Amino acid sequence: MLVALSLLRELGPVVAALLFAGRAGSALTAEIGLMRATEQLSSMEMMAVDPLRRVISPRFWAGVISLPLLTIIFVAVGIWGGSLVGVSWKGIDAGFFWSAMQNAVDWRMDLVNCLIKSVVFAITVTWIALFNGYDAIPTSAGISRGNDAYRGSRIVGRSGAGFCADRTDVWELSSCKRKKMKFG
């Protein structure tokens, strides 16, 4: 039904990205900012260890991998919750619910677009968090300002990434058929 359709197309990637940005993104910004303030990153450079390769890159890839997995879990739990409410509270027949859901959703296209959106959001949110942490002034007030800047820029970044992800259709780009895309 509409529960699965809305979760796969919009709500799943967006809400999972907002939750990820609020929890993990703020923690990444504060952690990298604190590492700069306590000169851990500069001491790594003194030991000829590249902090971008050793510290920043693993955190970036962890964010890029974990957000699509969290999105899949979020969508699955949301669909199950919609089924529970529809069948238990509203008295909808369970067979009708699952049949209508399977007919309403194009699983291949909707799931691939959901995963692409979540990867785009993961790259955007993680990159902004790591940049604001690395660019923070190495004081406690600077870390706080970096975290505040992250909170403001994550909304703009997520919205911009969402606009770009909404405007791409995977199957049109992967096939040789070029259709005019409608914007707006």
Automatic annotation (TrEMBL):
- Provide the protein's localization: Cell inner membrane; Membrane
One Gene Ontology molecular-function label? phospholipid transporter activity
Instruction: Name the residues that span the membrane.
Output: 60-89, 110-130
Respond yes or no to whether keyword Transport is given for this record. yes
Keywords assigned? Cell inner membrane, Cell membrane, Membrane, Transmembrane, Transmembrane helix, Transport
Could you confirm whether the keyword Cell membrane appears in this record?
yes
Kindly state one GO CC term assigned in the UniProt record: ATP-binding cassette (ABC) transporter complex
| Topology with respect to the bilayer | Multi-pass membrane protein
Query: Which InterPro entries is this protein grouped with?
Result: ABC_MlaE_roteobac, Permease_MalE
Q: Which family does it belong to?
A: Belongs to the MlaE permease family.
Q: What is this protein called?
A: Putative ABC transporter permease component YrbE
Organism phylogeny = Bacteria, Pseudomonadati, Pseudomonadota, Gammaproteobacteria, Enterobacterales
Q: Which gene encodes it?
A: mlaE_2
